[in-house]
Automatic annotation (TrEMBL):
Pfam families registered for this protein in UniProt: Abhydrolase_6
Family: Belongs to the AB hydrolase superfamily.
GO molecular function list: hydrolase activity
AB hydrolase-1 domain boundaries: 22-255
Name the record gives this protein: Sigma factor sigB regulation protein rsbQ
Length: 264
């Protein structure tokens, strides 16, 4: 148990009967939840963690082999749940973590009560009439940029992803988060994220799902959220007023309200 807790920098806070597990997205870590935590801490037991390769996880535990697909990250989630003996978890995943949590729930539905997806996407690439938001050439260019100039990539992507120019402090915070990660690991995580395709798994999900879609998200188009809603049979779709890809950072009040309403 202890080695998983250390490996994934697991923190357990809050005093409640029900358990929330918060899973950060690509290029981030558990600190990204700080703006919404105070609303939930008094009422829930909250499990925070960093994926191996992110935040203050043990970088030495990272292998390209294990994390060459989303399965390695799914295993991180299941390892933590087993180590803490969690059950009936309300899993809140941001971005790619929505799919990681979903895949984990397919393997072990007994661990999960509900899935809450913030800015989820079953596939980031366009193709076969599907709108994912990116052409393959866009992603190839992004990956090349990460290799050539990691700091430049971070300062390029952060304002696009945050998409709240009136809040420059938050864009800077995101850029710092990107830049603090290991460049080689982050590039591999980006590749795994942007080339993942979970569409064939959607019919296997048995846990109720809340899909939270931002109104103007430069990473995930509204069509991607609507696609998920159509193909996840027990899902609720909420289109947010929030813009950008990080509503839990830029619009914490709206994010908190929607989650609280769903959990009631």
């Amino acid at each position: 148990m202890n080695e998983v807790v250390v490996r994934n920098n697991v923190k357990v806070i809050g005093d409640g009967e029900r358990t929330l597990m918060l899973a950060h997205g690509f290029g981030c870590d558990q600190s990204m939840w700080k703006y919404i935590l105070p609303a939930f801490e008094p009422h829930y037991r909250i499990v925070l963690f960093d994926y191996v390769g992110s935040g203050r996880s043990e970088l030495s535990a990272y292998t390209s082999e294990r994390y060459s697909s989303l399965d390695g990250y799914v295993q991180d989630v299941l390892d933590i749940m087993e180590a803490l003996q969690l059950q009936d978890v309300i899993f809140i995943g941001h971005s790619v973590s929505s799919m990681i949590g979903m895949l984990a729930s397919i393997q072990r539905p007994d661990y999960f009560e509900q899935l809450i997806m913030i800015g989820p996407s079953a596939r980031y690439l366009n193709g076969d009439g599907y709108v994912g938001g990116f052409d393959k050439s866009d992603v190839t260019e992004l990956l090349a940029m990460m290799e050539m100039n990691f700091a430049g990539w971070a300062s390029f992507l952060a304002p696009i992803a945050m998409n709240n120019p009136e809040l420059p402090k938050l864009t800077k915070e995101l850029e710092r988060s990107f830049i603090s990660t290991d460049p080689a690991i982050t590039r591999e995580f980006a590749e795994v994220t942007f080339f993942s395709d979970c569409r064939n798994e959607l019919s296997r999900v048995t846990v109720p799902v809340l899909i939270m879609q931002c109104s103007d998200d430069s990473i995930v188009p509204i069509a991607a959220g609507e696609y998920l809603h159509k193909h996840l049979h027990n899902s609720t779709f909420r289109l947010m007023e929030a813009k950008g890809h990080y509503p839990h950072i830029s619009h914490p009040e709206e994010t908190i309200t929607i989650i609280q309403e769903y959990l009631k």
